[in-house]
Design the sequence.
């Protein structure tokens, strides 16, 4: 086990996660992601570098603002832990290969969307656009210009298919079945996973998501559930299961 790198990527993930939390929370409100600096929403006390350390600052401050003692939502450290795990897992699967850059870009987008879609039911266009530009540049550097351009075809196909599924859903349910953000998200899925796998991620996400959504609708008494995180879950499972079985066995051995 290359534990050393796994720890580095976990720590990197928690730091990035702390930033993605801010991005996912501010973009849907059209707020700047750099100004104002991170502050307590209650007393507006600007957080010092020590108070910005992921997870640990929460533990040392016992979940409270240093200044006004207002409690910090537990989802903040939990999201940082999740981001750390996702980065470590992404490294574990892709190792220090060029594809790791693409994978981390993709995972980062999914983490930001998780925050914005759960909180506001919005997948910000800016996030999708910046992700696409980064992926395009990375593909040119890693696989060459023609690959970066040709793989736009499966991306477009995934986008069109999702658009048609939405139209069908609108007719079946007689209301908006999903948001425009979900359709644009499929463009990115198609660009990273290819066409059939992007579609498969919709089905995997929906099947796993159905019991979860039923449960969420019961407790929130809402008829709307954010579809983005379910799609993301499907995409991650499909993307990561490209790893071979020996790696899965290694991982299970290591955990037990
Ligand atoms: Zn405060």
Sequence:
């Amino acid at each position: 086990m290359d534990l050393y790198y796994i720890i580095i990527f976990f720590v990197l993930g928690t730091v990035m996660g702390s930033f993605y939390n801010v991005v996912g929370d501010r973009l849907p409100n059209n707020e700047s992601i750099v100004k104002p600096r991170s502050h307590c929403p209650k007393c507006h006390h600007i957080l010092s570098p020590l108070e910005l350390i992921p997870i640990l600052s929460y533990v040392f401050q016992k979940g409270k603002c240093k200044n006004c003692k207002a409690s910090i939502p537990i989802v903040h450290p939990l999201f940082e832990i999740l981001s750390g795990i996702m980065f470590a897992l992404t490294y574990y699967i892709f190792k220090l290969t060029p594809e790791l850059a693409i994978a981390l870009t993709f995972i980062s987008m999914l983490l930001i969307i998780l925050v914005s879609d759960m909180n506001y039911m919005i997948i910000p266009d800016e996030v999708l656009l910046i992700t696409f530009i980064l992926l395009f540049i990375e593909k040119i550097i890693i696989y060459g210009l023609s690959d970066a351009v040709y793989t736009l075809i499966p991306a477009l196909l995934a986008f069109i298919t999702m658009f048609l599924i939405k139209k069908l859903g609108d007719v079946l349910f007689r209301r908006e079945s999903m948001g425009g953000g979900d359709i644009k998200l499929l463009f990115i899925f198609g660009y990273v996973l290819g066409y059939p796998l992007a579609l498969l991620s919709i089905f995997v996400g929906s099947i796993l998501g159905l019991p979860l959504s039923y449960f969420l609708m019961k407790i929130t008494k809402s008829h709307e559930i954010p579809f983005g995180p379910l799609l993301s879950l499907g995409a991650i499972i499909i993307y990561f299961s490209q790893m071979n079985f020996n790696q899965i066995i290694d991982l299970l051995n290591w955990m037990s």
